[in-house]
Amino acid sequence: xxxxxxxxxxxxxxxxxxxxxxxxxxxxxxxxxxxxxxxxxxxxxxxxxxxxxxxxxxxxxxxxxxxxxxxxxxxxxxxxxxxxxxxxxxxxxxxxxxxxxxxxxxxxxxxxxxxxxxxxxxxxxxxxxxxxxxxxxxxxxxxxxxxxxxxxxxxxxxxxxxxxxxxxxxxxxxxxxxxxxxxxxxxxxxxxxxxxxxxxxxxxxxxxxxxxxxxxxxxxxxxxxxxxxxxxxxxxxxxxxxxxxxxxxxxxxxxxxxxxxxxxxxxxxxxxxxxxxxxxx
Length: 281
Ligand SMILES: CC(C)(COP(=O)(O)OP(=O)(O)OC[C@H]1O[C@@H](n2cnc3c(N)ncnc32)[C@H](O)[C@@H]1OP(=O)(O)O)[C@@H](O)C(=O)NCCC(=O)NCCS
Known about the structure:
Order of helices and strands: HHEEEHEHEEHHEEEHEHEE
CATH class of the largest domain: Alpha Beta
Distance between the termini: 21 Å
Number of domains: 2
Bound molecules: coenzyme A
Strand content: 25-35%
Shape: globular
Strand order of the largest sheet: 1-2-3-4-11-5-10
Number of helices: 8
Helix content: 25-40%
Oligomer: single chain
């Protein structure tokens, strides 16, 4: 993949995930929408970042005039992660996805690996055949009952000076620091820390998008802080059974429990106390 492929890869990715969201839509869920202009910009910006930091982990499949498939992965220290992966609906099931996954796994070079997997049968088939364990993920959705918010103390706004201990915590929990990803995340999100003991990035809708902590108590405090800033219809996702503390907080906040996809790992346990980010893991 090169920078010139970014707009084409974005178009393909929107078609792939709109199709897959439509097929996977459950009763009562809203009709999936194409990516907004802002979403397009964010996607290209994020993938450009991945391409700059670790270009050899980014691959596309192309025919004469369009990008047919993409697999964007990154190595950070001894961890490999897959940020996104897809093949256009009309081209699936012909082996293109296997070739893309083979290319990014060659780049992983035997590293331990982690990513958030969809339930698409082609995807789960590819991942298990590549040796990944698929751990079901839960998610909490709904509107936070603000009358149940506890008083949380000891938290502060995070800054770049926090990255050193955050990386050490990442290493303990997931085997590798986020490295440069922390700066990218801080540029785009609010960071709240329990200094030395845990952190959470919170997006502009008040959703926690990555949380790591040394213990469950700190993790719960950080999640409560995120829920306190949540707007209507919040979402806490990527919850594995090793992270039931998050289910307990979500239930106490009046959210509903649901199930969504898998956390795929190889060569490592599912991290805890930890809520992975869908694309930075
Ligand atoms: C996952 C994905 C990238 C795989 O690409 P692909 O080109 O279809 O992959 P391949 O053809 O190499 O392999 C897919 C395997 O699953 C099977 N498969 C593909 N689509 C399937 C379907 N809808 N139902 C059942 N099996 C399916 C294929 O037969 C193949 O198995 P085989 O190699 O044993 O014959 C593609 O299916 C996709 O884009 N899915 C939607 C988006 C998605 O979920 N992405 C993953 C996000 S984590």
